[in-house]
Amino acid sequence: MTMAPQDFFPHLSVWVENLDNVFPGKQVKPLFAQFEVGHILSLIVLGGASILMNLRLIGVGITEESPREVHRNLAVWMHVGVIGIVVSGILIGASNAERLYTSEAFSAKMIGLLAAIILTYGVTLPAARNDGALSAASRISGVIGLAIFAVAIWVFLSAKLANPGLWHVIFAAGLVVLYASRGLTRIVYLGGAILLIVAQQIMTHVVYKADDFANLDPTNKAFAWGFVVWILGSAIFQALASGRGSHGGPLLKGLALASILVWIMTAAAGRWLAFA
After folding, report:
1. What CA–CA distance (Å, rounded) separates 57 from 42?
2. Is the distance from CB of 248 to CB of 133 less than 8 angstroms?
C-alpha cells in the first residue's frame, strides 16, 4: 500500500496537473530556486528558535533566562519561520505539484507539519510563556500532536527510497538527549551509543559486504530500532530521574523533545522528496 497524496485524493489529479499553468504556480516556476532558498531559510530560522526554546523547557541551553524571557525573545522568530515555510511551501508546491502529488515523503511532510504546528502553538509557546506550566489545553494539544506525529513517522517509514531520511531524526534525537544529560548518566548514555555505532559499522562493513543488500537492509533496520530504544529509553530515564524542576516536569520535557524532532522530521521528509 502506497500513501502518496494521489492515493488519498485520486479525484484531484486533473486539477493538480494544471496547477503549474495557472497563478501562482505559473509565475513561481521560473523562480523556483529562489523560492526554495527562501523556504530553506525559513526552516533555519524556525529550527533555531524552536530548538532554543524547547531546550529551555527541557532544562538546558539558555538556563540563565527563564522560559518566559526566552519566549519573549524568540516567539516572533518562530512566527516568522512558520509563516515563511507555509507561504513559500504553498508557492513552490503549486509550481511542482505533480511531483509532490505522487510522493509518499510529501505525505509524511504534510502530516508532520500539522503535528509540528499543533505542538508548537499548543504546547511549546504557551508553556514557555507560562514559565513551564502546562495547562489542560496544552496537555490535550500534546496528546493530539504526538498522535499525529506518530502517524507521520509511520508514513515516512513506509515511503520507499525516502525512509532512510528517518536516520536524520534518530541522529538529532541522540544529540539532544546527549546534550541534556549530565554526569555519569551522560557517560553511560554516550558509551552505549558508541557501542551501537561500532557494532553497526562492523556488521555493515566487515561481516556483510557492500553489495549484500539481502542482509544489509534488515541489519540496518534492526540497528535503527536499537538506537531508537536506547535514545528514547535514556530520555525517559533522565526525565523521570530529574523529576519536576522549577520550570516543568517529565511530561513537558518529553513534549519539548517531540516538538524539536517533529520539525526535524518535517524538514528531512522535504529534503528526501527527490528520492521518493
Report:
1. 22
2. yes
Where residue 22 falls (left for φ over 0; alpha for ψ -120 to 50; beta otherwise) is beta
CB neighbours (10 Å) of residue 207?
12
Contacts 24+ apart (CB under 8 A), 188-194: 189/230, 189/234, 192/230, 192/234, 193/227, 193/230, 193/231
For 70-93, the pLDDT digits (tens) are 999 999 999 999 999 999 999 999
d(CA 119, CA 258): 8
Return the C-alpha cell found at 48: 533555531
**5 and 106 in contact (C-beta within 8 Å)?**
yes
Structure letter (DSSP) for residue 151:
H
Q: Going by C-beta distance under 8 Å and a sequence separation of 6 or more, which residues neighbour residue 66?
A: 131, 247
What does the block give as the cell for 163? 525512509
Half-sphere exposure of 37 (CA within 13 A, CB side): 3
How far apart (Å, rounded) are the C-alpha atoms in residues 182 and 228?
20
Q: How many CB atoms lie within 10 A of CB 210?
A: 8
Residue 34 predicted with pLDDT over 70 = yes
pTM, rounded to two decimals: 0.93
Q: How far apart are the first and last CA of the chain?
A: 14
Supply φ then ψ for residue 248, to 5 degrees: 130, 155
CA dihedral for 179, 182, 183, 188, sign (positive or negative): negative
**How far, in Å, CA of 178 to CA of 181, rounded?**
5
For helices 136-158 and 166-180, the axis angle rounded to 10 degrees is 140
Map residue 28 onto helix, strand or coil: helix
Yes or no: say if 50 and 124 are a contact pair by the CB < 8 Å rule. Answer: yes
